[in-house]
Write a structure and sequence with these properties.
Blueprint: H1 4-19, E1 21-22, H2 32-38, E2 49-50, E3 53-54, H3 60-77, E4 81-83, H4 89-100, E5 106-110, H5 126-130, E6 132-136, H6 147-157, E7 161-165, H7 175-185, E8 188-192, H8 197-201, E9 214-218, E10 229-233, H9 238-249, H10 255-268, H11 271-293, E11 297-298, E12 307-311, H12 319-328, E13 331-332, E14 334-336, E15 350-354, H13 356-360, H14 365-380, H15 385-401
Parallel strand pairs: 1-13, 5-6, 5-7, 7-8, 8-9
Antiparallel strand pairs: 2-3, 4-10, 9-10, 11-12, 12-15, 14-15
The structure holds pyridoxal-5'-phosphate.
């Protein structure tokens, strides 16, 4: 590579990923095959439109690739229709809103404090600027979704669309209950499964179909594919969804990423992928157990999925400091808001951590539990330089025992 500055920074980033413990629940290590697709000349092609209906010539092979990606996505998610073109999870959500809503229409979605995403009507996001979002939260005692509240709000505000989805809710989503409420008021039901797509494929979480009209996801979290989005829907919404993606909100699709999505869907059909997803949950639970044992309070008391949310509101240290100190020793977590948050989103009362990336490295419960112990030790000794250095060494040792992207400096070697 001629550009030494960028070359060296890419090398450093790969080294950081190799030598760090990634506990950010939305991150993962894509396979070399997925990464390779994204570095191909497919990136050069313009292919506005859909397979066999393009605005540009020269799309013979691109059409085949997109057809394969669509067919695999439909099979994988048992969906009647798939659109593989959204550039990201946010784009997928934007396309669904454009397809189903008019500006100012009402939508009922989880609040940011109850695991919601920015695209569920945050006032600083297009969704909150264009549409009228009403939010539901969680029950103050159980910290789980309260279907009485959701039904009450649905009846009161009559949303055209109900959204269920999560970025930080550690429990399973009950699509059937959401559907019962949506049916009572004739609303569409959308599930955003960005975080839990892999778990759903492996039957570690209930399936959004047939309950939901439309399902959006990212392809890069538990699904472990390229950075991107995907929309799955019932047949009767296919035309609306496709038009909303292109020409509605996007121009030319990212054909190199669509090829990578196709590869990721094939990988996700394998038995080893299902085993991997089961291990993700076991590892998240092993971490949860360690935190509980050490006296930490977890939101909802534990986890059903790939993530846990630690409540540090009673601590003197703030979450930003914990995130920063862990970063310095090579452990990556998120500061995150918790239900009924009393601090600010910039310095909230929660630490969110998850198991997808460490499980891709080959961690089992023993190593996941030990990783949690390292986090606990750091939090308890946050001002002790000597102990922090010891933990840093332990992190390095652990990552060397479970290597990732081994073979060359651009990640084409994937240990598992
Ligand atoms: C539930 C959920 N939806 C949508 C998104 C947006 O995905 P992207 O970052 O690809 O736009 C995220 C990302 O964190 C998410 O967690």
């Amino acid at each position: 590579m001629e550009d030494k500055k960028i070359y060296n920074l890419i090398k450093k980033e790969i080294q950081r990923q190799r030598e760090g413990l990634v506990l950010i629940p939305s991150e993962n290590y894509a396979s070399p095959a997925v990464l390779r697709c994204m570095g191909t000349p497919l990136s050069n092609k313009y292919s506005e439109g859909y397979p066999h209906k393009r605005y540009y010539s020269g799309n013979e092979y691109i059409d085949e690739i997109e057809d394969i990606a669509i067919e695999r996505a439909k099979k994988l998610f048992k969906a009647e229709h798939a659109n593989v073109q959204p550039h990201s999870g946010s784009q997928a959500n934007a396309a669904v809103y454009l397809a189903l809503l008019k500006p100012k229409d009402t939508v009922l979605a989880p609040s940011l404090f109850a695991g919601g995403h920015l695209t569920y009507g945050s006032p600083i996001n297009f969704s909150g600027i264009i549409y009228n979002f009403i939010h539901y939260g969680v029950n103050p005692k159980t910290e789980r979704y309260d279907f009485d509240e959701i039904e009450e709000k649905a009846k009161k505000y009559k949303p055209k669309l109900i959204v269920t989805g999560t970025t930080s809710y550690p429990r399973a989503l009950n699509f059937k209950k959401f559907k019962e409420i949506a049916d009572k008021i004739g609303a569409y039901l959308m599930a955003d499964i960005a975080h839990i797509a892999g778990l759903i494929i492996a039957h570690c979480h209930s399936h959004p179909f047939p309950f939901c009209d439309v399902v959006t996801t990212t392809t890069h979290k538990t699904l472990r594919g390229p950075r991107g989005g995907l929309i799955l829907s019932k047949k009767d919404l296919a035309e609306k969804i496709d038009k909303a993606v292109f020409p509605g909100i996007q121009g030319g699709p990212l054909d190199h990423v669509i090829a990578a999505k196709a590869v990721c869907f094939k990988e996700a059909m394998s038995e080893s992928f299902k085993k991997y997803q089961k291990q993700i949950i076991l590892n998240a639970q092993a971490m949860a157990q360690e935190f509980v044992k050490a006296g930490f309070r977890l939101v909802t008391g534990g986890t059903d999925n790939h993530l846990i949310l630690i409540d540090i509101s009673s601590f003197k240290i703030d979450s930003k400091r914990i995130q920063d100190e862990l970063d310095k020793i090579g452990i990556y977590v998120n500061k995150n808001v918790i239900p009924f948050e009393k601090r600010t989103p910039f310095n909230p009362s929660g630490i969110r951590l998850g198991s997808p990336a460490i499980t891709s490295r080959g961690f089992k419960e023993k190593e996941a539990g030990y990783t949690a112990q390292l986090v606990i030790k750091l939090i308890k000794n946050i001002n002790n330089k000597k102990i922090k250095n010891q933990i840093k060494k332990e992190v390095k040792k652990l990552t060397q025992k479970f290597p990732i992207y081994e073979m060359d400096s651009f990640g084409s070697g994937f240990a598992r």
